[in-house]
């Protein structure tokens, strides 16, 4: 856990407001640690190198939603089978506001790596998501399907790549 703390991975404004105890079990803490160390930390490190090279400003990444206990997941309208419930999924937002670049970066970064799902969530008609969902493992704890998806108007589609998207060499 180099770039992300356990606190950031379990923090939830909604949980706080609604008085939901979002404390993970030791088993789920282990999932969170595995996810951060195998995927989120390396992603954050590569994003920093990329941001420096491109002159994009702060490489900080905010986790807008990480672990969600059953009650919290219900409160935010998450899918019943969401990997967030198991500490395997995280919604990420780059603090420099470069969402288009971050989307392309995540896709490039995950090429050839073990992961379950990358979802560009709630895309607008310009292909810009509100956040990028990175799922390290399926809730079964085993599968890493390597899916690239876009969530548009509540429907999952193969990830839409716009011709204007530049390709990054990482
Ligand atoms: Zn998510």
Structure description:
This protein has 170 residues and is an alpha+beta fold. It has a single domain (6-158), classed as Muramoyl-pentapeptide Carboxypeptidase, domain 2. The chain is built from five helices and six strands; from the N terminus they run H-H-H-E-H-E-H-E-E-E-E. A six-stranded mixed sheet has the order 1-2-4-3-5-6. Strand 5 (147-152) and strand 6 (155-158) form a beta hairpin. The protein is globular and about 40 Å long. The model has no long low-confidence stretch (mean pLDDT 94). Residues 2-108 form the Peptidase M15A C-terminal domain. Pfam families: Peptidase_M15_3. It comes from Phocaeicola coprophilus DSM 18228 = JCM 13818. This is Peptidase M15.
């Amino acid at each position: 856990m180099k770039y992300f703390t356990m606190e950031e991975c379990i923090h939830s404004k909604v949980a706080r407001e609604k008085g939901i105890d979002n404390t993970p079990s030791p088993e789920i803490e282990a999932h969170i640690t595995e996810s951060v160390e195998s995927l989120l930390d390396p992603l954050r490190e590569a994003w920093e190198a990329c941001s420096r090279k491109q002159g994009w400003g702060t490489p900080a990444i905010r986790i807008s939603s990480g672990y969600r206990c059953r009650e919290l997941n219900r409160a935010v309208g998450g899918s019943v089978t969401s990997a967030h419930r198991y500490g395997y999924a995280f919604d990420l937002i780059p603090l420099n506001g470069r969402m288009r670049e971050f989307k392309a970066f995540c896709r490039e970064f995950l090429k050839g790596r073990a992961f379950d799902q990358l979802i560009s969530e709630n895309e607008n008609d310009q292909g810009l998501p509100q956040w990028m969902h990175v799922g390290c493992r399926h809730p079964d704890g085993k599968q890493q399907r390597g899916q690239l998806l876009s969530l548009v108007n509540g429907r999952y589609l193969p990830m839409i790549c716009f011709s204007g998207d530049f390709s990054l060499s990482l």
